[in-house]
Amino acid sequence: MPAKGKHRRPKSQGFARTIVVAGVGGAALALPLVGAAGAHAATPAAAHSVVKAAAAPAAAKTYVVKGGDTLSKIADVQHVSGGWKKLYSDNRSVVGGDPSLIHPGLKLTIGQKAAAPAAKSSATATQASAPKAATASGYALPVQGAVGTAYKTAGSMWSSGYHTGVDFVVPTGTPLKAIAAGTVVSAGLDGAYGNEVVIQHADGKYSQYAHMSSLSVSSGQTVTEGQQIGLSGATGNVTGPHLHFEIRTTPSYGSDVDPVAYLRAHGVSL
Question: Which of 60, 119, 169, 265 could anchor a disulfide with 112, C-beta 3.0 to 4.6 Å?
Fold first, then answer.
């Protein structure tokens, strides 16, 4: 005989639980209680996703080269990842082919590759490469710059016992020009003078340009007054960048004459 008891009515799976709240005018309203599944479905998906903003790359900056700077020194101070080689690689378009030839005022890009200099128009390029037109006297200064050590300054630092030329204080990379028309008799490395150019002129005198960082003429080449022959630098026995300029009666050391007096005699003011 079956045991006595009450049968429980199974709960309907579709039954929605309700809550009673006060309606308008005090009437009771039955509202469905939304389950967890419903709440989840109603929540926007964007609210459950974490979007991380991408880290902004470090901003590039410009560094202006100062006297005494080297790429290695700049890379260390500016904490360039990859050192001076990376700095040079990013700035090769502005530094040029020799990483040791940076000069005050040069602008380097830190943090990204520097933009290549804008190409010159053919007309501008032609004008830049053409020799300067001759002045009335046919002579010009070798470079625009302050005069440093004067001619005949005495001192034990010179093998002759005195300074055989005159120094023009200019930063590395300053264009140097032939003082008058002539023929290049030598162009290259010459001991304590570093890279130098010697030019013979029509009056039989020779002009010498020393400590150059680069040369743009070669032996045997004919030049005109004002034509660029190279760039100033600090090669050879020097304490800093400058142009050592001499006038000689022969192409060799020891035949020097006063270069300032020579230029003034040919109408050049300095």
Answer: 60
